[in-house]
């Protein structure tokens, strides 16, 4: 009898992810290397294919690689944006608390959910991050996760499509520029030298460069310090600092960036299980109402921040979207929507949620 080994199941999951990315790319879908694997793995889960849960180290590697690419896009002009970004970050952090407790108390009054579960189900912090808080305060983790996953599903469907529509109708240049429009400092000389070399030699030299070592070191440090998405943020900060300091960092193969997007897509897709979809269907009236209110308020906030800062509306909408930190930054990177600004906004919100919610919930409970 044919035995399904862990290697085969992992290979099946990887094949699904790559196939999904290629199909989405062929049909010119937005963010194909993230959304394609998510849809492919989700369908695999629905049809009960033997797909494994990816190991912890897989997520760590994907975060570091993504953080590396975000870091090489950081320039001195980005750093000058920090002052401008501080005010929107405060607005988003305050809005996160207001919308969380307003919707949380509404759910608490209108459903059988206890207070902790209702509040965390209404939080825009993202499924992995909020689920950790749910465990800490003894909330119903399953319900919290289902509500968060439903919201993330809506964001993954709407955000890329909305961004594409906005771009097609209004092509403007704003202070919030995209990764692909950067001329990364410290990379120009190295990448031009590589362009004339042997392709195979160039590929491996770009793959084995000091920038990746710097990214690993930065990721390990911030993860050890307990920073949310520490591997990604640490790699981004370390590589960004090195790039601005004129450290010679080789631009890695483009295939590595695509692989990191596929990896992030696989990580997200594995949580859209058959049970999660059934759970969403079971409480769909509450899910639809809560998701609609959250998305409408996010859109209004994104529009307001765009007016205040002059940033592109598509960047601001992604910066205020109620999804997970890693997911939103990865989407911003693949869609060229200034992942630096998006990461600042989501990090401010996530830190506010993680520091405030557990204490407030324990007090009012």
Description:
The protein is an all-alpha fold and 365 residues long. The protein has one domain (57-260, 275-364). The chain is 75% helix and 0% strand. It contains 17 helices and no strands. Helix 3 crosses helix 12, helix 6 (127-136) runs parallel beside helix 17 and helix 7 packs across helix 14. The N and C termini lie far apart (55 Å).
N-end to C-end Cα span: 55 Å
Radius of gyration: 20 Å
Please work out how many helical segments DSSP would assign: 17
Structural class by sheet pairing and helices: mainly alpha
Percent of residues in beta strands: under 5%
SSE series = HHHHHHHHHHHHHHHHH
In this structure, how is the largest beta sheet organized?
none
Mean pLDDT across the residues is 81
Whole-number tally of structural domains: 1
């Amino acid at each position: 009898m044919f035995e399904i080994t862990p290697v085969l199941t992992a290979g099946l999951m990887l094949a699904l992810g790559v196939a999904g990315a290629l199909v989405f790319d062929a049909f010119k879908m937005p963010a194909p290397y993230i959304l394609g694997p998510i849809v492919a793995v989700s369908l695999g889960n629905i049809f009960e294919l033997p797909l494994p849960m990816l190991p912890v180290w897989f997520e760590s590697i994907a975060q570091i690689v993504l953080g590396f690419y975000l870091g090489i896009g950081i320039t001195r002009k980005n750093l000058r944006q920090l002052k401008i970004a501080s005010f929107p970050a405060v607005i988003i952090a305050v809005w996160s608390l207001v919308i969380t407790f307003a919707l949380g108390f509404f759910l608490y009054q209108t459903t059988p959910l206890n207070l902790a579960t209702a509040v965390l189900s209404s939080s825009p912090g993202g499924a992995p991050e909020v689920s950790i808080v749910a465990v800490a305060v003894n909330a119903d983790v399953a319900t919290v996760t289902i509500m968060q996953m439903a919201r993330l599903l809506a964001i993954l469907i709407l955000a890329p499509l909305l961004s594409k529509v906005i771009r097609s109708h209004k092509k403007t240049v704003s202070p919030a520029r995209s990764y692909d429009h950067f001329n990364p400092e410290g990379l120009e000389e190295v990448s031009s030298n590589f362009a004339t070399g042997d392709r195979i030699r160039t590929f491996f030299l770009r793959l084995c460069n000091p920038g990746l070592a710097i990214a690993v070191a930065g990721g390990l440090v911030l993860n050890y310090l307990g920073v949310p998405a520490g591997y990604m943020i640490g790699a981004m900060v370390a590589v960004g600092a090195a790039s601005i300091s004129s450290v010679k960092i080789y631009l890695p193969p483009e295939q590595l960036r695509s692989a990191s997007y596929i990896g992030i897509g696989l990580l997200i897709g594995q949580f859209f299980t058959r049970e999660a979809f059934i759970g969403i269907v079971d409480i769909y009236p509450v899910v639809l109402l809560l998701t609609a209110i959250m998305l409408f308020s996010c859109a209004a906030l994104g529009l307001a921040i765009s007016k205040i800062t002059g940033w592109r509306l598509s960047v601001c909408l992604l910066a205020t979207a109620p999804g997970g930190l890693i997911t939103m930054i990865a989407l911003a990177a693949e869609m060229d929507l200034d992942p630096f600004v998006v990461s600042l906004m989501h990090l401010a919100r996530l830190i506010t949620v993680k520091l405030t919610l557990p204490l407030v919930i324990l007090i009012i409970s």
